[in-house]
Write a structure and sequence with these properties.
alpha+beta, 6-stranded mixed β-sheet, two-stranded antiparallel ribbon, 4 helices, globular, disordered N terminus, binds 2-acetamido-2-deoxy-beta-D-glucopyranose, signal
Length: 232
C-alpha cells in the first residue's frame, strides 16, 4: 500500500502517479491462481507419468492451486508431508530413477521435482508403511495453476523391494488422503486440508499403467490451507 505524503504530491507528475497506481494494482493476489488446476488433457498432457518403460504411474492426487501459496513450494510440500506422517528417520534408501510428466502447461515432459541428495529428499521418499509419492508442478506458461500433481503408491517393505503392492495406487492415494484430511501440524505450521474426489481425468483400469496395476480412475483433489496457530 502507498501512503502519499501530502508534501510530496505537488512534486509528483501525473505520469508518475499513474505508474504508482498501476503498480499497486499489480500486487500479487493471495493464491497463485484462481483455479484448482488445469486438466493436463486439455493441453496435450497426460494424467499418467512416464516411468521410462512406456508405461506410467497415475497422477492420483492433486494439491489444489487454491491452497495456501506457501504449501505449493518445495519447502512447503516437504513440511506438509511431514505433518501427515512422513518419517523424520531416513532409511537412506532411494527409489530408483526419476519419472517425468507432461501436465499440459507448455513445459512438455519434465522430471519429477528433485529433492536433491539432501537428507530431506530421502526422508520424503520414505513414509511410514511404504507410502510414497512423486511430485510434479503445474507451472508452465500455458497453465500456471501452481497445483502439485502427485503420483502416490503403496509399496512393499522398503527393505524387501520397491515393488508396488497389488492395488497399490488406489491404496496409496486413499492412505495419503486419509492422513492429510483435517488438521495437521509440523514445525509450528498448522494445516487444514479438505478433499474432493474427481473422475474423468484418469481412465479406470490398467491401460498404460505401470506394472499393469488396475485403478479405479479416481483423482483426489486436496486443498491445503495454512491457518494461524492461534486458531486451533
Ligand atoms: C531427467 O532425469 C534423467 C535421469 O536422471 C536425466 O537423464 C535427464 O537429463 C533428466 N531430464 C531433465 C529435463 O532434467
Ligand atoms: C474417494 O474415493 C475413495 C475410493 O472410493 C474413498 O475411499 C474416499 O473416501 C473418497 N474420498 C472422498 C473425499 O470422497
Amino acid at each position: 500500500m502507498f501512503s502519499l505524503d501530502r508534501t510530496l504530491i505537488p512534486t509528483i507528475s501525473v505520469l508518475q502517479l499513474i505508474m504508482l497506481l498501476s503498480l499497486s494494482l499489480m500486487n500479487p493476489t493471495y493464491a497463485y491462481s484462481s483455479v484448482d488446476f488445469y486438466s493436463p488433457l486439455l493441453g496435450g498432457g497426460s494424467m499418467l507419468d512416464n516411468a521410462g518403460d512406456g508405461l506410467g504411474e497415475p497422477l492420483n492426487v492433486i494439491i489444489s492451486g487454491l491452497s495456501s501459496p506457501e504449501v505449493l513450494t518445495l519447502d512447503g510440500i516437504v513440511n506438509f508431508a511431514k505433518s501427515i506422517g512422513f518419517s523424520e528417520e531416513c532409511l537412506g534408501l532411494h527409489l530408483g530413477a526419476p519419472q517425468s510428466a507432461n501436465l499440459g502447461d507448455g513445459n512438455d515432459w519434465v522430471n519429477q521435482t528433485d529433492y536433491g541428495n539432501s537428507e530431506l529428499g530421502t526422508c520424503l521418499e520414505t513414509l511410514i508403511g511404504g507410502n510414497h509419492f512423486r511430485v510434479f508442478e503445474q507451472n508452465g506458461p500455458n497453465a500456471n495453476s501452481g497445483a502439485l500433481f502427485l503420483a502416490v503408491s503403496e509399496e512393499e517393505d522398503l527393505e524387501e523391494s520397491h515393488d508396488i503392492i497389488p492395488d497399490g495406487y488406489n491404496i496409496g492415494r486413499d492412505k495419503l488422503a486419509a492422513l492429510a484430511i483435517g488438521t495437521t501440524h509440523f514445525d509450528g505450521v498448522t494445516y487444514v486440508t479438505t478433499a474432493r474426489n474427481l473422475t474423468g481425468l484418469l481412465a479406470a483400469g490398467s491401460v498404460g499403467v505401470n506394472h499393469g496395476i488396475s485403478t479405479d480412475g479416481i483423482t483426489t483433489l486436496l486443498t491445503v490451507t495454512i491457518v494461524e496457530a492461534d486458531d486451533c
